[in-house]
Fold this sequence. Notes:
By secondary structure, the protein is an alpha+beta fold. It contains four helices and seven strands; from the N terminus they run βααβββββαβα.
Amino acid sequence: MTSEAPLLPLKLRPRAWTAILLLVTSGVFVATGLWLGFTGKTPGFLVAAFFGIGVGVAIVQLMPESTWLHITEEGLTYRQLFKEHHVPWEAVEVFYPVTMRQSGLPIRKMVGFDFRPSYDRSRLGRRVASMVAGCEAALPSNYGMKCRALVDLLNEHLVRTRVAQEETGEFDSSLTGPG
């Protein structure tokens, strides 16, 4: 760990090129599907409708404030497609890189994390996610950073916050909550 971690609060945003790539790729498939549909090939309209969803998602991702990661002294909050999720530092055991694979080939690296054993929320869902993805939870984006760099940044703030809370007696190790 380095002592050069950025000061909190810190707000990270994803790079726009991934949404632009999704927009262009989906747009090409929508156009192809429409062309096939208008030439009498029925599955063409289904292809256009399916990839039209990708166009919509890409447009939303390109909107300001639709997607970000906000790291504070209380924890992290991430927003994906305007929906926010908050994870308090006390709930997290550790962050680590996870490589998603398809047919054995790596397709995406993402930041995974496990919750502390005393964290009672969604135990069954976390167990299933861990079996399927190799982690109990994951961030939906790397927010413009390399996966390993974001993991190191989050773990550093996790340790700093945990040490500070233990020193002041504010650390709640029970962490029970509604399932």
